[in-house]
Design brief:
Layout (H helix, E strand, L loop, with lengths): L15 H8 L3 H8 L7 H14 L5 H8 L4 E6 L7 H13 L4 E6 L4 H13 L4 E5 L17 E4 L9 E5 L1 H14 L5 E5 L5 H16 L9 E2 L4 H14 L5 E4 L2 H13 L9 E5 L3 H6 L5 E4 L2 H16 L6 E5 L2 E3 L46
Parallel strand pairs: 1-2, 1-3, 3-4, 4-5, 5-11, 6-7, 6-8, 8-9, 9-10
Antiparallel strand pairs: 10-12
Helix pairs in contact: 1-2, 1-3, 5-12, 7-8, 9-10
């Protein structure tokens, strides 16, 4: 006869002993199964997980932290006050860390080294288990500190120390992806308009583009044109390009903002995009790429994946499995109409309603406010 009671029938929150009793194992074995510690048979883990779910068991995080010497909290410091590039990195990291029952404390240094040190001191006081450091660009940065009592992983903005763990975007691969796609759609006179030359991304993407074209007996039309990361620069550069090389049939742009300006200049010059000139951007900033006319084919740098990988490396390091060195996450091409091909996944570009990201009484995400007991916390 099954004597287990549902969470609604219980007068108190389920404990690890309740889970162990229902699963037919010792409390220590149940704890190992739930915390992914030790070596257990898959059947044993499944029984413990099933018992935990049935009893509605939620571990006491304070007790876990005290006895495991862990706070189950991770810090994340960014230098990107705009959030355009670090936000998807942070979202990917938080998704991955949240699935492992880790809370995230996010701090913005706004590119100020003194503020960064203050945030680091605060996080040290919170006894975090690990730290992710990210920023606005892929230029390497000095290590945030040495001899910290927890592991650090650098995401998007790599550390200059090769002994640190850094997860990087594939800027060189982005240039190659753009070149391969433009050759695939029949273009041979390909120009490149990009951002400031002191950005690592600018030189790496240009090298990737030029390298792939060279492998196919081609060269970039004219010089690589460098300037601001702006629509206005894209317009200016495209106007000059048309004045010097009217026979250009494709332009790879170092950002989606630049590409929007390029398309504007081509349209004003009565040059049809993509029939006469195909345009590829970089970043897959959906707000910009979708609104371009025609919608913009672009290289997605997969920043959310950078965050997820950084989180996985961090949790591994917290568990004693540190992975040093630089790890590159591949970019992906997102095809839209600016290169003459139909959408590969038009449904993925459908805009969300404004309230899709809200939680209020009319929102499908809304629910009744939980009690302390519903959160697995006992009131005093």
């Amino acid at each position: 006869m099954d004597t287990a009671r549902s969470p609604q029938q219980r007068q108190r929150p389920a404990t690890i002993r309740d889970v162990a009793e229902l699963a037919g194992v010792s409390p220590g074995t149940a704890s190992k199964a739930l915390n992914q510690r030790g070596t257990l048979r898959p059947q044993t883990i499944q029984r413990v997980l099933a018992a935990s779910e049935r009893l509605g068991y939620r571990p006491n995080e304070l007790v876990r932290g005290v006895f495991g010497r862990r706070s189950f909290t991770v810090g994340l410091i960014t230098s990107d006050s705009f959030g355009r590039f670090s936000s998807p990195v942070m979202a990917g990291a938080e998704d991955a860390l949240g699935s492992g029952e880790l809370s995230v404390i996010m701090c913005d240094s706004r590119g100020d080294a003194r503020r960064e040190r203050q945030h680091l001191a605060t996080l040290l006081g919170r006894r975090i288990d690990g730290l992710i450091v990210t920023g606005r660009c892929s230029n390497p940065r000095p290590p945030i500190a040495t001899s910290l009592p927890f592991p650090v992983v650098y995401a998007h903005t790599p550390s200059t120390d090769p002994g640190d763990c850094s997860v990087m975007v594939d800027d060189h691969g982005a240039g190659r992806l753009a070149a391969a796609h433009l050759l695939e759609v029949g273009r041979r006179r390909i120009a490149h308009i990009t951002g400031p030359p002191d950005f690592h991304a600018v030189s790496s993407r240009a090298a990737g583009l030029a390298g792939y074209l060279s492998e196919h007996g081609l060269r970039v039309v004219g010089d690589v044109r460098t300037g601001d990361w702006s629509e206005s620069w894209g317009r200016q550069a495209a106007e000059r390009l048309l004045g010097e090389h009217r026979d250009v049939d494709a332009i790879y742009c170092g950002s989606d903002l630049i590409a929007r300006g390029v398309i504007d200049a081509l349209t004003e010059a009565k040059v049809n995009v993509p029939a006469e000139v195909a345009v590829v951007g970089t970043d897959n900033w959906a707000l910009i790429a979708r609104a371009a006319r025609p919608p913009l084919t672009t290289v997605d740098m997969c920043l959310s994946e950078i965050g997820r990988r950084a989180a996985h490396f961090l949790t591994a390091a917290i568990d004693g499995r540190s992975i040093a060195g630089r790890h590159v996450a591949p970019a992906q091409l997102v095809v839209r109409a600016s290169t003459g091909l139909p959408y590969l996944d038009a449904a993925a570009d459908e805009p969300h309603g404004y309230h899709a990201f809200c939680i209020h009484e009319d929102s499908p995400r809304a629910s009744a406010a939980p009690t302390l007991g519903g959160l697995g916390v006992q009131g005093r």
